[in-house]
């Protein structure tokens, strides 16, 4: 089976790229098509493939400034041409990857991490007052209607969608009018289950981990823990680093920057709990924390409702510092009945092999359907 894998961009190695890595492992002959690629930024399983990039790759400084070129991304993904005869196209999309044009008769299966969130339901989180400079906000408002139209129209070119959560499947129906099956993304359990469950949570700190993107709402955690006077360790960096770092004046809050993959399991295991503030489309970090045997305090919307249960964590109902602080106070009592083995058992439901088997089944299914019926062709 010859597969063309399509991914938005290969600049950092985060959740979407870990999904791509898992797909590469079970599709050993697949080529990769992407907007841009920073060589050396990915796992060996990805870097070892033939990787084809768009015209954006030739722009000086693109790897640092690619977000500024969002209006060009639809044109860039549509400009890519498949370089071989393939049996199926499998896109891994959170922006424009699902918009690749494929030859008539070639089935296209798209695994969607999220619709273009900054142009749909999270537009204000990215471009609202105080989030970015006025010229950027004006430009975003100007291109938003066109990008939404392109996003809906290009979705018609896909034969079948797989969403990474029921939460995202609902968005695909709402924004694109398309149904989807659900396959949860993989957790690299082996990294987080090597440490014993006994003795966890002894570090005394709470842990927040993620990219400093607006919708991640690290600001909520910083304000809540300043008010509580409780220790919060923050792992990550990103576009809001300077703004958030300048407001985090508290001896109880510690910024660790990016942490190596080898150091991360111990950080999870020694934390009292993971603090999870975004309304995430899925969210891998709660499962990583549970795999090490630690509970989660999460905002009670989005993907967290599919990965955390009443035995493995607590939810706060409003995306505010006060609501989070209240949950942290309740945690003091709830923690007494927590069992680390319950958390690990929950995480094991989302293992890498489970994801790989499900995705291979989806690929085989779309191939069977394509052989039985003529492909629907939609013009954009």
From TrEMBL:
Transmembrane segments: none
Keyword check for Repeat: no
Keywords: Transferase
InterPro entries, per database record: Glyco_trans_4-like_N (IPR028098), Glycosyltransferase_grp1 (IPR050194)
Organism field: Myxococcus llanfairpwllgwyngyllgogerychwyrndrobwllllantysiliogogogochensis
Domain of life: Bacteria
Lineage: Bacteria, Pseudomonadati, Myxococcota, Myxococcia, Myxococcales
Keyword Transferase: yes
Coiled-coil portions: none
Molecular function terms, GO-annotated: glycosyltransferase activity
Domain Glycosyltransferase subfamily 4-like N-terminal: 15-191
Name assigned to this protein: Glycosyltransferase family 4 protein
């Amino acid at each position: 089976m010859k597969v063309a894998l399509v991914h938005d961009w290969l600049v950092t190695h985060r959740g979407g790229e870990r999904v791509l890595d898992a797909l590469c492992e079970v599709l050993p002959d697949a080529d990769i098509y992407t907007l841009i690629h920073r060589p050396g930024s990915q796992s060996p399983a990805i870097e070892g493939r033939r990787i084809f990039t768009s015209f954006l790759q030739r722009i000086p400084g693109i790897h640092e400034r690619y977000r500024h070129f969002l209006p060009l991304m639809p044109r860039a993904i549509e400009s890519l041409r498949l370089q071989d005869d393939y049996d199926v196209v499998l896109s891994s999309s959170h922006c424009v990857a699902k918009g690749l044009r494929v030859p008539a008769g070639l089935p296209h299966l798209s695994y969607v991490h999220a619709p273009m969130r900054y142009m749909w339901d999270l537009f204000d989180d990215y471009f609202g007052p105080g989030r970015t400079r006025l010229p950027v906000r004006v430009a975003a408002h100007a291109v938003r209607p066109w990008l939404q139209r392109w996003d809906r129209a290009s979705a018609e070119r896909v034969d079948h969608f797989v969403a990474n959560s029921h939460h995202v499947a609902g968005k695909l129906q709402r924004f694109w009018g398309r149904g989807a099956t659900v396959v949860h993304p993989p957790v690299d359990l082996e990294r987080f289950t090597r440490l014993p469950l006994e003795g966890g949570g002894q570090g005394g700190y709470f842990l927040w981990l993620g990219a400093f993107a607006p919708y991640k709402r690290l600001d909520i955690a910083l304000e809540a823990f300043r008010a509580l006077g409780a220790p919060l360790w923050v792992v990550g960096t990103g576009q809001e680093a300077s703004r958030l770092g300048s407001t985090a004046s508290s001896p109880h809050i510690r910024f660790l920057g990016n942490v190596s993959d080898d150091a991360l399991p111990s950080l999870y295991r020694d934390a009292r709990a993971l603090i999870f503030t975004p309304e995430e489309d899925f969210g891998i970090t709660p499962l990583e924390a549970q795999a090490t045997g630690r509970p989660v305090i999460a905002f009670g919307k989005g993907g967290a409702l599919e990965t955390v249960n009443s035995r493995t964590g607590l939810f706060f109902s409003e995306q505010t510092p006060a609501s989070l602080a209240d949950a942290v106070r309740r945690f003091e009592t709830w923690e007494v009945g927590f069992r680390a083995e319950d958390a690990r058992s929950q995480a094991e439901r989302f293992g890498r092999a489970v994801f790989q088997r499900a995705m291979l089944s989806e690929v085989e299914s779309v191939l069977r359907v394509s052989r039985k019926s003529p492909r629907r062709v939609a013009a954009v």
